[in-house]
TrEMBL record:
BP term (GO), one: methylation
A Pfam entry, by short name: Methyltransf_11
UniProt entry keywords in alphabetical sequence: Methyltransferase, Transferase
Protein species of origin: Bacillus aerolatus
Protein name in UniProt: Methyltransferase domain-containing protein
Lineage of producing organism: Bacteria, Bacillati, Bacillota, Bacilli, Bacillales
Amino acid sequence: MEKMSWEFEAKDKWNRRADGWRAKSADMWEKGSRKGICPFFASHVQKGSFAADLGCGDGYGSQKLHGEGYKVIGIDLSNKMVELAKRFEKEHLTFKQGDLSSLPFEDEQLDAVMAINSLEWTEHPALVLDEIKRVLKPAGKFCAAILGPTAGPRENSYARLNGKPVIMNTMMPWEFTKLASEHGFALIGEQHVYKNGITESDIQPFPTELKQALTFFTLFMLEKQ
């Protein structure tokens, strides 16, 4: 496989995608696949908590979380995304460019972290989990969404099969929970998001592994141990 700078390529890709992402982010958070994320987060994290949105994109999800009563700082590798996100800035809602593998926070500074489909875009997810654990307070909450087998964005990792470099770590939901457990997190909540008309009631009898196999993404809530 060709050598590359993961950070440079990832930053460049999301800088080029920023305007297109902004055009659809509101719909995703208000009516689409991400509409249930803030309610799920709020069901586990006390209002008024200080939270970081890692891989915040254009900031739409961060400002929704702030609207639910949280103090939020959004972090994204793409400086273009951060520029777009800054339109939402106000008291207790700020944005900063940064690498998820080297977070700009002190040890045990945060009450909670949200990372929605962003761990897959890091070169070493295990190192990012260690960083998240470092910056969370004891028993801090970690909300993560991991793309499932039916997610179209997996096309971003397909080129690896031809020996080409990619900047996406395809990760199964069960792999994420195993990795998170190995790095000091306990699973305390799980929610599934489907597409193509599938609902939770359609697959209620299925075990968790089969539910995850049909997901667009799985939403996890974990607690630092």
